[in-house]
Fold:
Amino acid sequence: MILQSLAGLPAFLVYFCTGLVAIVAYLLVYTRITPHNEFQLIRDDDPAAAIALGLSLLGFVAPLVSAIAHSANVLDCLIWATIALIVQIIVFFIVKLPVPNLSARIADGELAPAIWLGLSSLAAGLLNAACMIY
Structure:
C-alpha cells in the first residue's frame, strides 16, 4: 500500500523541481527588468519592495500552479511558465503608466505604489491561471 502511494513520487519530484527552477528564473528575470533592486531593498528592510515583489511572485506562481496541473508534460509546463513570466513583465510596464515614477517610489519605501504593483501582478496572474485551463 505504501509503494502504491509513492508511485507518483517521481512525477511529483520532476514537477516540483521544474516549479522551483521556474520560480528562480522568474525572480532572476523580473528583478533584472525592474529599475529598483528588490533584494537589496528587502535586505535594507524596505516593506514596499517586499510587498511588490512578494505579490508579483504570487502573480507568477498562480499560473505556474495551473500549468503544472494542466500541462501534458514538463516541456508544456515550461512553455506556459514562460508565458506567465512574460505576462508579469507586461503588467509591470502597464502598471507604470499611471505611476511613471513607480520604481523610485517603491525604492523610497512608499507602500501605495508597491501595493498597486503587487495586487495588479496578482490579479493578472490569477486571470492568466484561469485562462490556462483547457
In short: The chain has a mean pLDDT of 96. The chain has one domain: 12-131.
